[in-house]
Amino acid sequence: MMQEKLVIVGSGPAGYTAAIYAARANLNPLLLAGPVPGGLLTQTTHVENFPGFPEGITGYDLVMGMQQQAERFGTRVEYDEIVEFQLTDGGIQTLKLSSGETIEAEALILATGASPRYLGIPSEERLRNKGVSACATCDGAFYKDVPVAVLGGGDSAMEEATFLTHFASKVYVVHRRDELRASPIMAERAKANPKIEFVWSSEVEEILGENKVTGLRIRNNKSGEVSELACNAVFVALGHVPNTGLFKEFIDTDAAGYVILKENTSMTKLAGVFAAGDCADPRYRQAISAAGMGCKAAIDAERYLESRHRH
Ligand code: NDP
């Protein structure tokens, strides 16, 4: 049994920013890095909109810098996974780890982030890692001089499609509407790229292929027409779902599973349990806003611990 003052769950910008603040406040935080150390930032390419990096920085370098900064002030980072939460209102927060270890914490910051959303059709599951991927940065280079498809119409889809043009002979962007959700700058960049072709108002009925992806069967939802599109890989960029399944029975979440916070704070309905970053943010979901939320959570946790020790 480990006894801790403050445990931070998650190792993206929210978790590491919380750790930097908490460590500098002498709270001696333990950060559990979770199943994807560094979080979603490690799966993006260049980050151009994080202030302080006028030339941009890779997502990986950005989050590794945050980790070093958190460790420099004494944050301990562990890579074990949590299998069970037992959360209380103002009491001890208990975490069970996959190693069998139990951690008791006086305060807890949930910064568990979000995971890629998939279509949820059987052929997608069957061909996962056999041409179906949610990470162009990780897998794009495997598809040189062949056509690939990207699913979605948001910023992620534009970013992935643009990145994939470095390798693929052609990139189809298959979107269910005839209008993009992406921000104008990202959309224009993709539209101006001669290797990118948009396939509008189209839904994927099936991903084709036995042991590797050979194409898509798509249905135009305006004309009803069904057609096949030949491609060797499918990059899913359909947004994200919050990673709150293991603890959402204890706190309030919205219909999509995002943690609901008390207005303008990082507080959940349980005293001593705070949340930050994408797991609690259905609206902005940016590295910089996650970092800001991590800062707020550390300050809220510090004040909570201080008043707890005073009483
Ligand atoms: P979004 O939620 O913005 O977009 C998801 C896209 O997937 C939408 O176009 C949506 O369609 C589509 N979609 C969702 N579910 C389905 C489904 N079941 N079938 C078909 N299509 C589906 O997610 P993103 O990951 O693109 O972006 C998330 C956040 O991260 C945003 O705030 C974005 O700005 C930010 N971001 C910023 C980047 C940057 O600035 N460099 C890079 C990447 C992300 P519809 O539009 O019809 O709802």
Q: How would the global form be characterised? A: elongated
Please give the share of residues in helix: 10-25%
The biggest sheet amounts to: 7 strands, mixed
* First-to-last CA distance: 25 Å
Which percent band covers the strand fraction?
25-35%
CATH topology of the largest domain: FAD/NAD(P)-binding domain
CATH 4th-level superfamily of the largest domain: FAD/NAD(P)-binding domain
Q: What letter string, H or E per element, gives the SSE order?
A: EHEEEHEEEEEHEHEHEHEEEEEEEH
User: Helix/strand-derived class?
Assistant: alpha/beta
Radius of gyration: 21 Å
Give me the CATH architecture of the largest domain, please.
Answer: 3-Layer(bba) Sandwich
By CATH reckoning, the class of the largest domain would read Alpha Beta
- Overall strand count: 19
Ligand inventory = NADPH dihydro-nicotinamide-adenine-dinucleotide phosphate
Secondary structure tally, helices: 7
Number of domains: 2
What is this structure's SSE topology?
Elements: E1 2-9, H1 13-24, E2 30-32, E3 46-47, E4 57-58, H2 59-72, E5 76-78, E6 82-86, E7 93-97, E8 102-110, E9 114-116, H3 122-126, E10 132-133, H4 136-139, E11 147-151, H5 155-164, E12 170-174, H6 184-191, E13 196-199, E14 202-208, E15 215-220, E16 226-230, E17 234-236, E18 240-242, E19 273-275, H7 287-310
Parallel strand pairs: 1-2, 1-8, 2-5, 8-19, 10-17, 11-12, 11-17, 12-13
Antiparallel strand pairs: 3-4, 6-7, 7-8, 9-18, 14-15, 15-16
Helix pairs in contact: 1-2, 1-7, 5-6
Bound molecules: NADPH dihydro-nicotinamide-adenine-dinucleotide phosphate.
